[in-house]
Structures are given as structure tokens and as C-alpha cells.
């Protein structure tokens, strides 16, 4: 454990797993109720205590966490997610085959597109063609103008998420004065806020359009299994969630559009970059340690063989 001073803020950096675990205990008796201090910069950037990751209001955090967990615990949702993952990987593999064996792949860019499209599909139940747009950019020498309208909008949306992620540091590290009066930082902050407005408007539109779709769907027709549908229908007559939480009155009301938006935003932000980095690190280390790779292959063969026998 050590501390640093960044932009006038005293930060304590934890390196011990037991200390980090203690800070994440979901209990009112916890000695560490605030896991991440909400600065005025975070508030301006739209991270003002909403959703789960940046929420220090215990009651609100508990409400959002329960519905987030509820959405991903539905068995049919998990089966569907596995099927989507396999289909999407096969699609990406087909693009790699088209590029040829001699084409040098930038794995992190491909995997970020893969994880973004996967989390978008899981979150909303629809494709955003992240992989297809990247492939078309490559074969057209990174020219966005060569993409059709749908692929171009898809590429813009994906880039907005990446920009939003990168911008978190600016609104955490630089205070209000720096963001408004120091020339270079001020210009960067304005661009980041403009990107934030685009991203937030896009997500709110997705939420509202899906709500209208559900309202117009006949009662005798089943609704698709995805996180957004789970959030919208929670505690309503169209509830698709198999897991219920009826022991707490605070969890019995439907979610507002803002609450739904915040959870979808966190899913997309968290499910894109972190997951992509993890996959790439695994690929990197397996490539450098062939004996570990071989043990992994053997374990896959053993487990899959047992599953087939059973």
C-alpha cells in the first residue's frame, strides 16, 4: 500500500488482495462504504453515482446490483450468450481467413471489436456490426467514407466508447479550473464532453426504442432474452426474469430509464476494454509459455471428452 498526490488529490493505492476484498463487501456494516470517491469531474462526465461501479449510495447501489445480477443469472440468457459468442467468433474467423495467412493481425483491435459487439449483443439483443465495420475499414485502407451508413454509424459508436473510456482520466486527474482554463486541457475536455453527449444520447435512444418495441409486442409473443429487456420488464407484467427478489420492498419497483441507461453503459464500458485486454494477455502468455498452452489443450480435451461421455 502506498499513496500519491495527483492533481491535488490524495490517493491511496492498494496492492493487497485482502484489503481490496474488504472494501468491496456489500454490507452496511462495512468500514469502507465509498469504494471510489465521486469528484466533480466524474459528475460532469456522467459518472455521478449511477449504476453499480461508481455508485456510493448504498440503497441505489443495492437496487442496481440486484437487477444487474438478476439479468445475467437467467439460464436462457446464459445459453443465448454462449451461442452468440460462438457465432460471433466464427464471423471474425471468417474475416481473418479472407485477409489471408500473410496478413498481420492487430489482435487488440480485433478483440476490442469482438468484445464490444459481444457486450452490445448481450446488453441489447441486437448486433452493432463492430467486427464487420472494422474488416471493411481494413480492406478499404482505413477509409471510413467507404463504409455504408450502417457500418459507419457502428464504427462511430464503437470509437465513442473507446474515447469515453480514455477520457475518464482527464475528468479524474484535472480539476475544474484546469479543464476550463488551461488551453490544451480545455480543448480536450470539450471534445470529450461532446463525445459523451453523443454516446449518452445513443444509449438513451436504444433504451427508449426497446421500451416501445416491448409495449407494442403482443402479450402472447415471448420477448427475447437480453439485459436491456430484462431491465425494462423487471417488476412489470412482462417480466422475463427467472430469479426474483421479493424479500426487499425497495426492489419491487420497475427501473427508470436513467437506471437502465446507467447499467447498460457500465456493461458496455466494462465489457469492452477490460475483457479485450484479458483475452489478449492470455493469448500473449500462452504464446510465450508453450508448456502451459499444452496443458490447457489437454484440459480442454479431457473436460470436453467427459462431457461427451456424460
From TrEMBL:
<protein>
    <recommendedName>
        <fullName>Cytochrome P450</fullName>
    </recommendedName>
</protein>
<dbReference type="GO" id="GO:0005506">
    <property type="term" value="F:iron ion binding"/>
</dbReference>
<comment type="similarity">
    <text>Belongs to the cytochrome P450 family.</text>
</comment>
<dbReference type="InterPro" id="IPR001128">
    <property type="entry name" value="Cyt_P450"/>
</dbReference>
<dbReference type="GO" id="GO:0016705">
    <property type="term" value="F:oxidoreductase activity, acting on paired donors, with incorporation or reduction of molecular oxygen"/>
</dbReference>
<dbReference type="Pfam" id="PF00067">
    <property type="entry name" value="p450"/>
</dbReference>
<dbReference type="GO" id="GO:0004497">
    <property type="term" value="F:monooxygenase activity"/>
</dbReference>
<dbReference type="GO" id="GO:0020037">
    <property type="term" value="F:heme binding"/>
</dbReference>
<dbReference type="InterPro" id="IPR050121">
    <property type="entry name" value="Cytochrome_P450_monoxygenase"/>
</dbReference>
